[in-house]
Every structure is written in structure tokens, then in C-alpha cells.
Amino acid sequence: MKFRNIANRQTCIAMGECNGASYVGINEVPSPRVNSNARKVSVLPLIFLIFYEVSGGPFGVEDSVQAAGPLLALVGFLVFPFIWSVPEALITAEMGTMFPEDGGYVVWVSSALGDYWGFQQGWMKWLSGVIDNALYPVLFLDYLKSAIPELGGGLPRVIATLVLTALLTYMNYRGLTIVGWVAVLLGVLSLTPFVVMGLIAIPKIRPSRWLMVDLQSVDWNLYLNTLFWNLNYWDSISTLAGEVDNPKKTLPKALFYALILVVCGYFFPLLIGTGAIPVDRELWTDGYFSDIAKMVGGVWLSIWIQGAAAMSNMGMFVTEMSSDSFQLLGMAERGMLPEFFATRSRYGTPLVGILFSASGVVMLSWMSFQEIVAAENILYCFGMILEFIAFIVLRIKHPAASRPYKIPLGTVGSLLMCIPPTILIFVVLALSSLKVMVVSLVAVVIGLVMQPCVKHVERKRWFKFSESDDLPDLHSTAREDSETFIE
Q1: Are β-strands 466-468 and 3-5 bridged in parallel, bridged antiparallel, or unpaired?
Q2: Are 211 and 32 in contact (CB under 8 A)?
Q3: pLDDT at residue 189 above 50?
Q4: Lower CB density within 10 Å: C or N end of the chain?
Q5: How far is residue 224 from each of residues 268, 316, 374, measured CA to CA in Å?
Q6: Nearest to 269 by CA among 255, 284, 256
Q7: DSSP letter assigned to residue 21
């Protein structure tokens, strides 16, 4: 891998100008590889990597029924994707193919708003990802504690969390292609018992139960946070774009099929669970699908659901860690972090990034489910605001830049598409508790201070910073005789 020193960075034009007005091309190059023979991720594994970045199955949606009842839960998982998931997936497809390199959304924001805000994006999204990943050992043990009560708390739970984190971290170390195909296997195994439960439950379904609603007793904070947590993170796959085989075609296709898989994976289990048994909202909490399975099919189906939940959480953990660690690698390749973050193992994986992400998960695993969801949602909201701004800025400033996939909307249409999810972001923020908001804002302030500190470390040469020669310079000043790069 070739690197150039940041201080001696050569000027090059990533996007060429035409008549000093509109951009007509982008220098598209793949992310550099230590191992040129490393296999890249193809369409099918990428679909399931996205599936696990966003969903992993219906485990964790139970709180939506507790918060709002069956009708609003079902409507939420049908309507919410059009408000949030579709716009986020479309933006990811366009920007991910425009910048097909590790680092993803960090590169988008840097190209539009500069390195300072790119660093803030990287900090907030990495931290929200690590907080999110700390949730999966919690869900894993919550589903198993009914079979193994000792895992409900104390030292056995701590040991189980550490062992699980170590095993799944090692899987990430062994390679992204392994993670991708493991995600395919785990996805099939995680969804199969719900298909079986649906077939068994057909005679027991009472459609009138789906219409239960009591607007006066709705916990809107828990309801929106649950929907938001279960239907976001579509952009996380962008940090792996440099590891994808032909991302210009593969990424949009995988996002489309993953969107269908995610929505169906939520809606139909909820339809079965709320229709097959009498609804007691207080019982709808983490792990309740295994109880439903026991009532519908017996102990064997309940055990199968518990096993599926465990496998689902394994899939979500390894895919989230891959995204978080490759994001750090991409930032290091852009000179935003010390060069050692760009170090790859002999399997092509970001060794330092994996270790940092695993350490964050261990430190945050003490938090409760609701605290984790609320905290990561707030940080994620701040990051998404920067992404929407970067998307619109690039559409306005560089409308003719090469976009292998382009959302079939003009600049005005793109702006209008971002309005509903932006309103939703502010609603989620407004409903957050004071405690969680304060903690999240402290985390944001840390990032605002951290970037100048990192630049100071670079100037003092306490650590080596470098930028890959294989990547285009995002911020060079356009010259009148600017060189145009056209593929």
C-alpha cells in the first residue's frame, strides 16, 4: 500500500470542472489492498451483511407492541420504511457508488463540508455503532436466560459477555468474506423458525387482535426509538464499499433486496405474534417471541426461536464490528487518524480498528437495553443530519459529477426527499430523556475537541499520519485549467 505524507500532499483534482461551473467526473478508484488476492464481497453476502447491519430479524421489535399496541406496531413497520429506510438506502446507494472506498459516510461529509466535519461524522457514527454493538450481547443473554437462569446477572453474565465478544471479534479478524457468508447462513437459520411458527399459527389467528389501539396509553418515546433503531443503519454498509466486488452495480442491487428482506422479516412475525395469541402489552418485551412460540407450537419451537435469536445477535455483532472497524481504517487512509489504524492483518482485516471496537463494546455492555437504544439513536441522528447536508451540498455544487447510481430525482426532489426523515430526527431528539440527551451531547463535545487534538498530535509528529496515494484528493482547489478525470 502506497502512502503519501500529509504535509507533502500533492494537488490533484478529484472532480474536474467544465467551464468553471459544473463537474463532469470523479476519479473512482478502489480502496487499496494489502493483499491483492483478497476476495471481495459479492451480491448475496452483501444483502445479508446489510440485513444484519439494519435488522437481523424480528428480535428487538417486541417493545413496539408494549409501547403502542398491535395496530400502531404493524402500521409503524409498514409506514416507517418509506419515511426513513427508503431515503437512507437511496442516499447510501448514490453516495456509496460515488465514493466506493472504506470510510463511507466519513468521506461523503469530508468531500462536502471538510475534514473537520468529516471527523465529527466518523466519531459520532463510530461511537453510535459501538454502543449499538454493545446491545447484542445483552439481547443474546436475555434470550438464553430463560433456559439458563444463571445468565440473568452477576459474574456468570459478565464472563459470558466477555467470552462471546472475544469469539465474535476473532471471526471479524479472520476476514470479511467469512463474515459475509456466515451472515447468509445465520440469516437463513434465524428466519426459518418464524416461517414454521407462521404456518402452525394460521388456525389460531384472530384478525380483530391486529386492530387493538389505545392512543392515550402510547409511550411515544419508546415506540419511535424502537422503530428508529430497528429500521436505520442502512448507511453502515458504505464503510465496506472498498471491499465490495464491483460496488457501482452490486451496492444498489443489494440495498434493494435487503430492504424487502428487512421489512418482511419484521412485519410477518409481528402479524403472527399479535394475531395468534391474546395481546397483553406488558408481556411484550425482549425475548417474548420465544414465549409466543411456546404457546403456538410448544417447547421445541420456543427453543428453536431462542437459538435463532442467539444466531441473529451473532450476525448483528460481527457485521456491525466489521463496519465500525473498516470505518476507522478508511479514516486512517484519509489521514484523519494515525497510520496504525490502517494496518491490516494477513486476512486483510483492520486489526487495530477491530481491537478498538471490541474494547468499546466491553466497556459499554453494562448499559440497559433502553439506555443503549436511546443513546445510540441520538448520536446516529446527529450523524444523519451531516449526511443529509453532505448529500444536498454535493447535488448542488457538483450536479454533473459521475454517479454510477443516481436517485431519479432532481436537486429539488432530493431536497424534498430529505425533509420527512429530518423532521423525524428532530421528533426523536425532542422525545429523548434529559439524562440520555446530556450524555450524548457530552459525547458530541468530546468529538469537537478531539479533532483539534488529533491535528496537534499530527503537527508534533507524535504519531505518523499519511494518506493513501490510491485515493483522490477531496479538497484540492480547482484551477481554471483543471484536469478532468473521466472513467
Answers
A1: antiparallel
A2: no
A3: yes
A4: C
A5: 19, 21, 10
A6: 284
A7: T
SS3 13: coil
Quote the percentage of the chain above a pLDDT of 70: 83
d(CA 183, CA 46): 9
Backbone phi and psi for residue 468, each to the nearest 5 degrees, phi listed first: -65, 135
* All cell numbers assigned to 11: 494537488
Please report which helix (H) or strand (E) contains residue 168, including its range. helix 154-174
| 8 A C-beta contact, residue 100 and residue 244 | yes
The DSSP-derived string for 224-292 is HHHHHHHT--GGGGGGGGGGBSSHHHHHHHHHHHHHHHHHHHHHHHHHHHHHHS---GGG-STTHHHHH
| Cβ contacts of 431 within 8 Å, gap of 6 or more | 220, 221, 224, 225
Residue 33 has pLDDT above 80, yes or no: no
The pLDDT of residue 107: 92
Is the confidence at residue 409, as pLDDT, over 90?
no
Q: Look up residue 355 and give its three cell numbers.
A: 481491537
pLDDT of residue 30: 40
Give the tens place of pLDDT for each residue, 42-70: 899 999 999 998 988 898 889 899 999 99
pLDDT digits (tens, 9 = 90+) for 440-453: 888 899 999 999 99
Selection from 88, 59, 166, 68 nearest residue 421 by Cα: 88
Do residues 225 and 61 make contact, with C-beta atoms less than 8 angstroms apart?
no
Gap between the Cα atoms of 332 and 327, Å rounded: 9
Work out the angle between the directed axes of helices 247-276 and 43-54 (0-180°, nearest 10).
Answer: 50
CA-closest candidate to residue 258, choices 52, 62, 42, 102 = 52
Element (H, E) at 16: none
Written in H, E and C, the secondary structure of 78-109 is HHHHHHHHHHHHHHHHHHHHHCCCCCCHHHHH
DSSP classification of residue 463: S
Residue 245: name the closest of 253, 257, 236, 233 by CA.
253
**Residue 165 neighbours by CB under 8 Å, 6+ apart:** 137, 317, 358, 361, 362, 365
> What is the per-residue pLDDT for 192?
93
d(CA 96, CA 100): 5
* Residue 188, pLDDT above cutoff 50: yes
Q: Spell out the residues 6+ positions from residue 240 whose beta carbon is closer than 8 angstroms to its own.
A: 41, 49, 102, 104, 176, 322, 323, 326
Environment class of residue 205 by beta-carbon count within 10 Å: exposed (0-12), middle (13-18) or buried (19+)? middle
Q: Answer whether residue 473 shows pLDDT above 80.
A: no
Amino acid at 29: V
Give the model's pLDDT for residue 11: 33
